[in-house]
Design goal:
Length: 377
Amino acid sequence: MSSEPNVPRGISVVIATKGRVKLLDELLESLDAARSRFPLPSEVILVDDSSPDDVREIEDMCERHDARRIAFGPSVAEKRNVGVRNSRYDVALLLDSDCLATPELLNEHYRCYDDPSVGAVAGLLEFVGPDTWFWKAVANSQFVVCFDFPRWMETVPWTPTANCSVRRDVFEALGGFDRDFPDKPGGEDVDLGLRITQGGHVMTCNPKALVYHQKKTWIPVKAMIKRLWHYGSADLFLMERHPDLLYPCYPRRTLLALAVVALCVVFAALASPLALAVAPIVLLIDLALCAAAMQSYEKRRVSFLQQVVIQLLILDNELGFLCRCLERRRFDFMGQQLIYFDGQAFGIVDRGSLLTLAHLGSAVLLAVLLLATTVLA
């Protein structure tokens, strides 16, 4: 199958890691079972920058599970580049350290490469662990949809690298992950997938190439807020590299919120100090109207308050993007968004229309309240 005659057939599992010793041990144990069912050679490469205390435990794990540790960090993207560059076999399987492999994982990834047009394989990821009220909101947000791509798509333009394999020669020809992305994870997997598929290779989906992902590394609210901020920040880098995928977006809610605050400040200076109290009232009502609109449109099994949380997460993600635009002075991208799939724009238009109605309702309320503050002054 390999297009490089000097590269032996087999799978090199590359895991970028730092700490997470217990989860890593569980992953390596699950990979032992998957490797035992795989008829070709395989290896596991850990690219790691853990603390010295954790390194001792990780090196013991490597002894027990026939794995190899390479000391490198902190960039997750460059860790994966280092892992693939130091691999032996013609297919590299990229996994996150908080995942568990299923017994047929290696077989299901590798068999897809019988088709010479396939350059990469998107495996399925299922979250496991106890539910929380917050997790149920996250699970019904737009931020986990990408992990479900293999359930309902045959091919994709990109996939998360929590469970993704790629031909090593394709990876190397493209230069691997873009080193210019920020060190925090986000966007570099999208960029790699787009370059693979735009280069004429197919990224096929295989729902049988399954891993389980621990919910507990996603559930903490603070970690989720930081993660989505970084995802939003990375969108600017993606836009700069893939301008052909840009599409005009509806007014961003964060910019509308800033406009409301600015208008209330101006009104307070010119007419009545009471106008300062209007901004938080209008913003809270606008958030509630947006949540109600999306609750009606999406008909998901979440409560209204969970839908409010989803809208707050979207705002957090959007703020990360806008702050990066301001930092790099790329104001031209503030009114753009990325479209990856045929039909994605239709969903954006449908949702955007409902959100516009919600914003119009908030604008009417804003006008009424500002007028009232003038009368009361």
